[in-house]
Known about the structure:
The structure holds two protein chains of two kinds.
Chain A: H1 2-34, H2 39-51, H3 54-79, H4 87-104, H5 109-138, H6 142-162, H7 197-215, H8 217-227, H9 229-234, H10 239-266, H11 279-289, H12 294-317, H13 324-337, H14 340-349
Chain B: H1 6-31, H2 39-57, H3 60-84, H4 89-112, E1 117-119, H5 132-136, H6 138-144, H7 149-167, H8 169-179, H9 181-186, H10 191-215, E2 220-222, H11 229-239, H12 244-265, H13 271-289, H14 296-300
Antiparallel strand pairs in B: 1-2
Helix pairs in contact in B: 1-6, 1-7, 1-10, 1-11, 1-12, 2-3, 2-4, 2-10, 2-11, 3-4, 3-10, 7-8, 7-12, 11-12, 11-13, 12-13
Amino acid sequence: MKLQRKLQQLLKSLIQPLTAVLIGLLTGAVAISLVGASVLETYKVMWDGAFGNFYFVTATLARATPIILIGLGLAIAFRAGVFNMGAEGQMVLGAVSAALAALYVPGSGIIKILAALLAGFLAGGLWSLLAGWMETRFKVQLLISTLLLNYVAVLFAGYLVSRPFQDKSGSAALAQTHMIDQVAWLPKLFQGMSVHMGFVIAMVLAITLYIILRFTSAGYEVRMLGYNPFFAEYGGINKIKVLLFSMFFSGGIAGLAGTVEVLGSQYRYVEGSLTVPGYAWTGLMAALLANSNPLGTAVAAILLAALQTGAMGMERNTEVPLEIASVIQGVLILFVTAKITMNWWKVKKKAGDIHGAA
Amino acid sequence: MELLDLSFFTSAIRMITPILLAALGGALCARVGIFNVGLEGLILAGAFSAIVGNYFSGNVLVAVLVGALGSVLVSLLFGMAAIRFKANPIVAGIAINFLVLGLTTFGLRAIFNVKGAFYDKNMEGLPKLDIPVIEGIPVVGNLLSGHSPLVYIAFLAAIVLYIFFYRTVTGFRVLAVGKNEAAARSLGLKVTLLQYGAIVVCGILCGLAGAQLSLGQVTMFTEGMTAGRGFIALVAMMLGQSHPIGIVGSSLLFGLMDALSIRLQGFSMPTQFTAMLPYIITIIAMFFLKDRGADSQLSGQQSSR
């Protein structure tokens, strides 16, 4: 009986995202047929571009790495009931700090790597903590301040790499730091493939977070604050402390996202390399799709990354433009948040689940 | 080159226009309790539809109307999600931004068969409006005259919105919805209708903002040509406390900063810091303004999730 109820619950929680995926793919199909291509063939090419062979699978996982980390960071904040919109700035500051630490901290490779990871985590975390502190101390809305701090962070990082720390050795003076010494690179998981150690870090973190949120009292406090801040306070939880901690880790993990991109694939901080692909927004979507469940976030992040790498493959091999991925993503997230199926479910079962999905 | 000359201010006024229009639209949404993060997407939709309208009709007026219509359609989609289906407006807004970026780039390929940007020299841009009397006054004439009609419409819209909010019954009801939706509903106000109304007008305003972008200076459309203006408009709206006159002020500030950072490039100064200023000013302003304006309802809950 218990198992059956659990299965039912699982199905119920899956209906919403699955419907959204279906509607997203249908919209994509309409768009594809509008440009006069074959829908099935295009989706097949897209699938191949994401999972077609081992090389493409690793490319997808490499792209998913920063998205998973961003999503995990945001999941912590969302679980605590704070809408951290500042992942982009936290990631970029983490990336640039990590690059500088790897460049200028003396020592062997492993020391450089550890210093960079620490610097990236701290930079992202403290930047995020600033917003949390402004919220708890001065009631400056976190949602808005994090959004604003993004611009400040991205512009500041841009200043750092176009002025004091710019690599002027190349002929074209791009806004980027010097290349990091090879000893401080995160190793690739497979020879010649783009997926690197960062992916392992992300997955380990996903599992750890899942366990912490689910089975420890600290995780319980975070979730309690998110579900019902009044009850949490009544239950003796120090609201401010939990909120600040959540923001610090949320931003720190976003900073790690930038760090592993720098140490694992770019080997330097290049202006725009993290903001242009929209990692932060995609990570936000992953966390929302999975309703802030860490393991689910990782899966959603990989799926969204697959959608993007698949679209790239599609653009290489067909006439259909890459942006179809954006369209599908947009529709997907729009329908995930809309409580359509929830309403439908309620009417049928007459049982209310108010907290439900995001 | 002088730092502050007349052309500096005229360029600032041009830069203000799309921000001001979109920020007013956002303010209208905020006043009915919907925080509209999708402004960026709405402007982009307007810019693209305006170019499409221009290309197929060859008439600028039609182009602007099509621009507004395109934006309204997207805005209604956002409204449906946020109001009818109770989606989190912030998430829905982000989704709209992605959706429109994809759709417009896709449309660029599907309709015009180009990638990146579309330009046709036969397309006619917005006319420059010379105001009869003011035109003749030496400095003021150069500053105020000779802009596209949308520039004047933007400032006019701010005044109209101010009168609407504070001098009409419907406007008063709109404010009531923003202050406390449940109370407004219990008084028998047609909350949903007012919200949809705000969404539609917001769409029109953002459509005009987009038309100014794609038809104002150069008549062309480029992928993602809004380049964050929607978010700047959002910030202008917050700094202006969703008050029409406040928004004019904050938009002027942002327009000046924008023009200033472009001008400073000529002086080989780091432009990043001037570009940062609007955001820092807004953050500082939020320390003082936090308890006022329509956004207070949003901050009441710890999170909007």
